[in-house]
Amino acid sequence: MKDPVIAAIVSVSLLLSVSTASAQTAGDPIESYCATLGESDHFASDGYPLKDAAAIIRQDRANFHAFGIRDESDENDSTFSSKKNRARLEQMLKNGSMDRSTRNAIVNGTPDVCIDVYDDYIDVTLL
């Protein structure tokens, strides 16, 4: 391939495909990413404040993928690049895990978190 950007995208896509297939059979996450849940992530797109940890995480992904609002340490993910999957995020968290101290840190601050994504749930931990 002559275009290095396209070659890099194809390479990453192939690696993700291989790692996703092996992860699903091993019970490992489909993917994992870390992000800072900054001030802008604590407000919905129409400006009202968010008071729920799952909604804040969802807004972080909407800001990252749809609006280009990113904190310096935000990592990319492929799952929540889709609006449909972002709509599933809150239910995925209900099916997954996040301890009380992590939930409080998200609602009351701007912590760094790591998200492990599985087929139908996510696990959230503080970094």
Q: How would you explain this protein's 3D organization?
A:
The chain is built from four helices and three strands; from the N terminus they run αβαααββ. By secondary structure, the chain is α+β, with helices and mostly antiparallel strands. It has one domain. It has a three-stranded antiparallel beta sheet. 22% of the residues are buried.
Strand fraction:
5-15%
Strand order of the largest sheet: 1-2-3
Mean pLDDT: 87
Give the termini separation. 38 Å
Evaluate the radius of gyration.
Answer: 15 Å
Q: How many discrete structural domains?
A: 1
Major pleated sheet: 3 strands, antiparallel
By DSSP (H or I, 4+ residues per run), the number of helices equals 4
Total count of strands: 3
Helix and strand composition category:
alpha+beta
> What are the segments in which pLDDT stays under 50 over at least 5 consecutive residues?
17-26
Percent of residues in helical segments?
40-55%
- Helix and strand sequence: HEHHHEE
Overall morphology: globular
Concise synopsis of the structure shown:
The protein is an alpha+beta fold and 127 residues long. The protein is built from four helices and three strands, in the order H-E-H-H-H-E-E.
Any descriptors?
alpha+beta; three-stranded antiparallel β-sheet; 13% strand; 4 helices; 127 residues; single chain
